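Here's a chain:
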Amino acid sequence: MKRNLVIVGNNPLAEIANEYFTYDSPYSVVGFSVERSHMKHKTFLKRMMVSFDEIEKYYPPSYHSIFVTLGYDKMNKDRTRLYLKLKKMGYGIASYISSNAFVWRNTKIGEHCFIFEDNTIQPFVKVGNNVIMWSGNHIGHHTNIGDNCFISSHVVISGLCNIGKNCFFGVNSTVANNLEIGDYCLIGAAANVAKDTDPGKVYVGNPARGIKEIVI
């Protein structure tokens, strides 16, 4: 019997999450929720949409799990805020790992993660909580991915790396082996990171260089 799932969001990622959870997971999506300021309609994908401040009334935590589909705005802080609030309210925290992802047996993956197809996650990797990995990435052996990261597509993170929390990796970016990526780093598309990064900066180019501070 599938578990009831409420998706928080009414954006394209919510639509995608609904598709994956419906056809490739032990969950059944029963409804959606957003913060009141984002309420546009009372339904989404033919299911009831409720305001976040009424979510317990319509979808009580004793019978429902949740997944938050907010994207990487503000370096993933909004998604993190809602996920932690729902956890404190007593909701079960759902994750999705594609049946078409390669995840080695001793990989450790935290809660509230979404891992798309064609990701390769090698032995001894540790993935924190609230991490999204879009399709086609390579995460090398013994690498640690911090909480609240967003890794887009075709990113290569080599072995023995430590990735800080709330980082974003653009399409086709690469990280050489045995490097430290600081918290709140934005690694731009196609950037080639060849040395450790300072926290809170945007990195672009080949080799990647920090060009500005991140203001959240």
The chain has a mean pLDDT of 97. The longest strand covers residues 27-34.
